[in-house]
Amino acid sequence: MISFNEKTNTFRLDTPDSTYAICISRGWIGHSYYGKKVGDDDLTYLTRCNDFFGAYTPVFREKHTFLDFFPQELPTEGLGDFRESALAISNSENRNGVELKYVSHKIFDGANPIEGLPAVFADKSECKTLEITTFDAVLGVEVVLVYTVFEKINAIVRHTRIINKKGTAPVFIKKALSACIDMDNQNFDVLTLHGSWARERHIERHPVHLGKQGVVSMRGETSHQEHCFMAILDKNADENNGNVYGFNFIYSGNFVADAQLNQFNNLRVVMGINSENFCWKLNPGETFNTPQAVLTFSDKGLNKMSQTFHDLYREHLIRSEYKKQMRPILINNWEATYFDFNTEKLIDIARKAKENGIEMLVMDDGWFGKRDNDRSGLGDWTPNEKKLGCSIGELGKEIRDLGLRFGIWFEPETISEDSDLFRAHPGWAVQVPGREPSLCRYELLLDMSRADVQEYLISIISKVLSESGATYLKWDFNRNLCDKYTASLRAERQGEFAHRFVLGTYRVLENLLTRFPELLIEGCSSGGARFDYGMLYYTPQIWTSDDTDPIERLSIQYGTSFFYPTNTMGAHVSASPNHQTGRATPIYTRAAVAMSGTFGYELDPNKLSEEEKESVREEIQLFDRLNPLIREGDYFRLTGAKEDCVVWEVVSKDGAQALITAVYTQVHPNQMVHYVRPQGLLPEQEYEISLIDNGQTEKLSGQEKALFLTEKTMTGKALQARGIYVPNAAGDYSAWQILLTARY
Ligand code: GLA
Fold first, then answer.
1. pLDDT of the residue at 54
2. What burial class does residue 520 get, using C-beta atoms within 10 Å of its C-beta: 0-12 exposed, 13-18 middle, 19+ buried?
């Protein structure tokens, strides 16, 4: 719902549980309110204008004083608002300052796509869009603030459109963030995600302090280190209580998400493309679109925030035919063979995998060019028939004849110095002339801003897909972007490079998906360094981390679950002891953790014991059975990720079924039983409680057997109030899956 009150000059943007209010004050676009849904009240009193000096001052103080105080929707640089700005533009004589004044607005059903960028989509009945047009008369630049508001989801999606409308000369956009929210600090905390390779998206929470705090990436991608998300939440907010504002970004390159608390206890949160080294030349008549930022509000804690993000993604950002479908259960040969494989080995893995119920074989790194280690071959996407022992077409056919789908690994945006591609096109590699390039994993990046590079990739990848019959592509990206220079742009445009790199990647992905509509692309970046809504628009699942240890994955998948639903998280059962940590864990625990993702295997099935093979068959049947629940249900974190017993739950949207998963990181002897309180159940409904057989049930105590193995029922109310205990009989790293099924 979007409305405009002409008397108060106020816009109201309502989602089911939130209200967002914007005012026009002396032509400036101000922010009045964002939070819990309110009635028809006049909220203009919230738009503080620094006229509190009352009798001593006229109502409107001079421009500088006003601007440095006024809560703004899109604060600009150079005129007197000294907080973090969201927009900076200079003219061709390098004169700074942007002054945006209201011109007009329009409200319409639905949401418009943004050319070249990923964006939410929806039917006309599902959302409304407000466009507020503003204009800077000195620059001749029009800036349109765009807000899409969802009818059934507590999300608002924002971006801006900048047009050099009436200028006769180019202007230079030096900063173009997508969103800004000015709030009164109500003793808030700030929550962000940080990590490293194999330790992605661990949460960090601390009280908001004066000055700036936030997360950034200058790595050309979202990064392992910091994630493009921020939540501002009540000090006492927890998973199920309290107000939480969540912000995320539909983009895959350099970003900034900053919260700045200032002298007046005003908290300004901004999000957008990182402006360091950014400068975009906009010729007369040209348009620049910023990527979309997603704003959510929850009045019931972090779980509700996550469910909002999950619903938004599942309904309005996944485009592929996999939107409502189970993804194929795959086996990937990386941890089984690394670079050392041929067709015989792959077929051997595929055959055993098929016997156990797996549906797809993914051939990972090493099948092309000269590539027996990570020092050479990237860019030469010609199958190495000598190594494989046959053509890729024959390999694909053999796999399909076994009844499996075929998937292939690529790392399209990179190039090895030792490759035919580099020898033929050294200028395609990203490097600064005269400077030694910064190699990473022995590789350079391809200049994705170049149309000829994009065309090369589209054509070579299409060729391999057509010849092999592959219907899945693992799209990897194993380094960061530095040495930022492109020969394809003039000096004054070099500041466009990092963004053009991302746009180039999006263009190649879009093209491939148009040519191969059934193609399922799984994103990857040394594990989960590019896990973001931008990539998820093209690649509906992303490899969450190179760390496949289920105990490490508890923290990684926990942090990822703050924004991303289970069906986006690539998660595999790998060998034990684990290759990253050396930790030994039971196969059923590895499976229970991987089931909260896309689920697959990454091991040599020939090395499994008979008992483990039996377990694999059962796990696959279980995942098949529970897939609609896990894929579509509401996700609840029932504990933190660093507990002795880490527990989470998925509840079907109708409340009829719930799966609780619990993993013991540490069992203590002679201790009180561990209770968890499920969420999201129907209070009056009777639920049958059953424990999934993980081969450990004979270890249960008599009381545990009485609860779990006797078709006992309890009401949703009782389960949620008193909780249910988790058996602790099977020791460290044991996992239990408890199913609650409504008995009608
Ligand atoms: C990255 C990926 C791995 C694997 C290797 C292959 O590290 O995250 O899954 O594909 O590359 O080189």
1. 46
2. buried
475 lines ligand 1 (CB under 6 A): no
| 602 Cα–ligand 1 center, Å | 12
Residue 363 beta carbon below 6 angstroms from any ligand 1 atom: no
How large a percentage of the chain has pLDDT more than 90?
90
pLDDT at position 61: 66
Q: Which of 429, 461, 424 is nearest to 445 (CA)?
A: 429
> pLDDT tens-digit profile of 430-466?
999 999 999 999 999 999 999 999 999 999 999 999 9
Q: Is the CB of 526 under 6 A from ligand 1?
A: yes
625 — phi, psi (to 5°)? -70, -40
pLDDT value at position 55?
45
CA of 409 to the centre of ligand 1 (A): 9
Atom index in ligand 1 nearest the CA of residue 474 equals 10
Instruction: Please tell me the predicted confidence (pLDDT) of residue 672.
Output: 66
Q: Whose CA is closest to atom 11 on ligand 1?
A: 526
Contact 554, 639 (CB under 8 A): no
Q: What is the mean pLDDT of the chain?
A: 95
Ligand 1, atom 1: closest residue by C-alpha? 526
Task: Render 651-710 in DSSP notation, one character per residue.
Answer: E-TTSSEEEEEEEES---TT-PPEEE---S--TT-EEEEEE---S-GGGS-HHHHHHHSS
For residue 332 and ligand 1, the question of a CB distance below 6 A is answered with no
Q: What's the DSSP call for residue 714? A: E
Q: Whose CA is nearest to atom 7 of ligand 1?
A: 526
CATH number of 79-316: 2.70.98.60
Q: Which 8-state DSSP code applies to residue 673?
A: P
Query: For residue 409, which atom of ligand 1 is closest to its CA?
Result: 10
Ligand 1 midpoint to CA 619 (Å): 25
Q: What is the arithmetic mean of pLDDT over 330-359?
A: 97
Identity (one letter) of the amino acid at 700?
Answer: L
How far, in Å, is the centroid of ligand 1 from the Cα of 526?
Answer: 6
Q: What is the pLDDT of residues 16-55, one digit of tens each?
A: 999 999 999 889 999 999 999 998 878 877 776 655 544 4
- 738 Cβ inside 6 Å of ligand 1: no
Q: Is the CB of 704 under 6 A from ligand 1?
A: no
DSSP three-state, residue 372: coil
Alpha carbon of 476 to ligand 1 centroid (Å): 7
pLDDT tens digits for 75-93? 999 999 999 999 999 999 9
Task: Give the fold, CATH level 3, of 645-742.
Answer: Immunoglobulin-like (2.60.40)
738: tokens are 């408890």
pLDDT category, 292, cuts 50, 70, 90?
very high
Q: Is the pLDDT of residue 405 over 70?
A: yes
328-631 has CATH 3.20.20.70 classification = yes
Structure tokens at 351: 């055959």
Give, to the nearest 10 degrees, the angle between helix 451-468 and helix 497-515. Answer: 30
Q: Is the distance from the beta carbon of residue 365 to the nearest atom of ligand 1 less than 6 Å?
A: yes
pLDDT in tens, 703-729: 888 889 888 999 999 999 999 988 887
Residue nearest to atom 6 of ligand 1 (CA): 365
Domain definitions of the chain by residue range: 79-316, 328-631, 645-742
- Are the C-beta atoms of residues 19 and 34 closer than 8 Å to each other? yes
Confidence check: pLDDT of 60 > 80: no
